[in-house]
E3 ubiquitin-protein ligase
Amino acid sequence: MMASYFDDHDVADVAMGSGSRPGSAGEQAGAAANQLAEFFALLGSSSDDASIRARTVTLLAELAQLAGTHVNLAETLSNPPAAESAIAELPRLAPAELRVVAPAETCPVCTCELAQQDCLKMPCAHLFHAECLMAWLHRHNSCPCCRRELRTDDIQYENKKRERARQQAAKAMYDSMYN
C-alpha cells in the first residue's frame, strides 16, 4: 500500500482544513467551503420542510458574516491613504505639456489618452489623470502600477515601515559578514 504525499513528508493536508490553527484563514476557508457544500445540498433537495428553510437562512447568515470578516481583514491589511502634503507635492502636467512628453500614452486607470486632461506624475515617473490618481491616493499610499509608496499621515504604519527597513539593513549587514 502506498502512503500519501502528506504521510511521506510528515505534513498536514491544509486544503482539507486539518493542521490549521483554530480561527486561522485556512480553517475559516475550510468551514466556509463545508457550509457552502451543505447549502447547495439543501438547495438540491426537493423537500419543503421548514427546518431545511431555517437551516438555509442560518447558513446564508453565517456565510454573509464570514464574507464581511474577510472584507474587513483586507481593508485592515491594505496601505493607509497618502498624506495630503505628499499628494500636493506631485508634479502636475497640463494637456499641452503631455502632448509633447507623452503624446500617445494612456492613463493606466481609465485607459483614456493622458493628453485629454491634467495629469499627475508619481515619483516613480508613472503618469495618471489627476482625477484617477487622486481617488486612488485617498485610499492607498502607493502607485497603482508599481506600488512605490508615498508618505502617509499614519504614524504606526510609518514606524512599522522604518522598523522593517532597519531589520532588512541589519540582515544584509549580517549576511555580508557571515556568508
The two ends are 45 Å apart (CA to CA). Residues 141 and 147 are 8 Å apart (CA to CA). Strands lie at 92-93, 119-121, 127-129.
